[in-house]
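Entry:
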Amino acid sequence: MISKSQQKYVKQLEQKKYRLQEKAFVAEGPKVVGDLLRRGYEPKMLFATSQWKGPHHIEVSEEELRKLSFLQHPQQVLAVFAIPHPTAERLSAEKLYLALDGIQDPGNLGTIIRIADWFGIDTIFCSYDTADAWNPKVVQATMGSISRVNIVYTSLQQIIAESSMPVYGTLLDGQNIYAQDLSKGGIIVMGNEGNGISEPIRALISHRLFIPSYPAGSDTAESLNVAIATAITCAEFRRRG
């Protein structure tokens, strides 16, 4: 049984101002909630139907879960967790990092977090104007990967300027990624869906990359979705070594 105050509390966490105020976020479904629990996240609240086989919780009916859920089709369990606040680590020359410059779409951000997890990138630096990673839509789109990737909101200019690592960015005036030397470690910058990489960050990029369309010179799509471009870029780095 859920109370009206519990329902109100969960629903408010759809809004960023309440997530910041409560320092909490919502996760849903056996996959996402299960991954967070396995990574040591302690739920502030956990509501589940009798189908859920996880740890102690407040049992609710499917109808009650629907009242709490942000999903069209709720899946057994919904939990509220504390938002982690990892700080910028000392960068390792042997590691790849993603830097997101103004990514706005929650679906894109969630997919990029999932891509980072797949390609073994455990830290993503986000500009302050990048969408909130703890938005329920982002959390859901990560399919549990948010439990394994550190999301750090910071000044990208400062992180990049203070680093001695190569900095890669995908740009329309870049060089063919398939013909470039790519290092084992570095920072890969991905820009805003409409405007690309901002001018201050663009000025700090040491290696400008371009993902060509095929066949050369043919009439193709104007651009790639930023999440797809991220996947192609990460795959090429990992393919090299």
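The chain has a mean pLDDT of 95.
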